[in-house]
Amino acid sequence: MPKTRAVEAFDIQYGLLEINKLDENSIQVEKIICNELYDPGSYYIYDIAVLKLEESIPEGYVFPTKLAEPDFNTTQTLDGMVIGWGRNATNGYLPTILQKVDVKIYSNTICDTAHNGVVDLDHHICSGIPENGQGSCQGDSGGPLLYGDIQVGVVSWGTSGNCGISNETHPKVLARVSSYNEWIKETAKLSSSTLQISVPLLFFILAIFFTNYL
């Protein structure tokens, strides 16, 4: 079962690449809106949520990113990037400075084969590094997978206990943003022409409540 904490336990820091325990650039979370169809029993489909903040982020601290449109596909392997504040290695330390790693966004065939058909390709997308050694880790859950300036995934789960293993046999699994595009916009009460979210803030705003890594 997911861990449960009161909404008062959550706040976000904006405009920072280095997070800290101070109240610097901090805003309290007012409401956590989880997708009503979230199902951990089906390999975490609908594993996505939106956070409503108590106040707006001041202008000048965010820049626009694009959410993958419903027709985004991964019939072929693509180049991508994962960012987050997760551990630097299995059982490693939690960095305070935002990290990034270049990854492959694996094709549907690779993703499906690696996980023996249990992933739902309408809701899941896979990423990793063929040569191993790097990848998303504990604490990266909820972080974005980017394809250029488009967010295509949100870090969710994996089968290997080793953060450095994310090859074609053990790829990481993420929520497929294109499947939730309309839900995100409707939930956030924003049109496609006005949706603007800071990439570093996506770790918080498109949050995954996932316990296998956290």
From TrEMBL:
Q: Does the keyword Transmembrane helix apply?
A: yes
A GO BP term here is:
proteolysis
Q: Which SUPFAM superfamilies match?
A: Trypsin-like serine proteases
CDD domains under this entry?
Tryp_SPc
Q: Which PROSITE patterns match?
A: TRYPSIN_DOM, TRYPSIN_SER
For whether the record's keyword set contains Disulfide bond, the answer is yes
Question: Which sequence ranges form a coiled-coil region, renumbered to this chain?
Answer: none
So where does this one cross the membrane? 195-213
Q: Which InterPro entries did the record assign?
A: Peptidase_S1 (IPR050430), Peptidase_S1_PA (IPR009003), Peptidase_S1_PA_chymotrypsin (IPR043504), Peptidase_S1A (IPR001314), Trypsin_dom (IPR001254), TRYPSIN_SER (IPR033116)
Q: Where is the Peptidase S1 domain?
A: 1-189
What UniProt keywords apply to this chain's record, in alphabetical order?
Disulfide bond, Hydrolase, Membrane, Protease, Serine protease, Transmembrane, Transmembrane helix
Query: Can you name one GO molecular function term for this protein?
Result: serine-type endopeptidase activity
Give the top-rank taxon of the lineage listed in the UniProt record for this protein: Eukaryota
Family note: Belongs to the peptidase S1 family.
PANTHER family hit by this protein: FI18310P1-RELATED, POLYSERASE-RELATED
Protein name per the record: Trypsin
Source organism per entry reads: Popillia japonica
